[in-house]
Amino acid sequence: MNRYATNSMVRQFELAMIKSTENDYIVPCSLNVMNSIACAIFAHKHGKLNLLLFKDGKYIERNHVL
Predict the structure, then answer these.
(1) Can you tell me whether residue 53 is helix, strand or coil?
(2) How far apart, in whole angstroms, are the C-alpha atoms of residue 55 and residue 33?
(3) Cα separation, 52 vs 15, whole angstroms
(4) What is the pLDDT along the chain (66 residues), one digit of tens a residue?
(5) Distance CA 35, CA 58 (A)
(6) What are the boundaries of each domain within the chain?
(7) Strand 48-55 versus strand 58-65 pairing type
(8) Count of C-beta atoms within a 10 Å radius of residue 64
């Protein structure tokens, strides 16, 4: 993905998250701009943000009501 094609990212992520629910999670990885856009779309759609973060060989949950 082109890191500067943010409009394209928004369109693709909105389509990918059509069937997402408030109980789904985002796993931050790859480009920071992609993480930012994915989290913004998820939070806007569901009013909350659920993250799975990798630490010390395991995943930890972080949930934020916005």
Answers:
(1) strand
(2) 21
(3) 21
(4) 899 999 999 999 999 999 999 999 999 998 999 999 999 999 999 999 999 999 999 999 999 999
(5) 20
(6) 6-65
(7) antiparallel
(8) 11
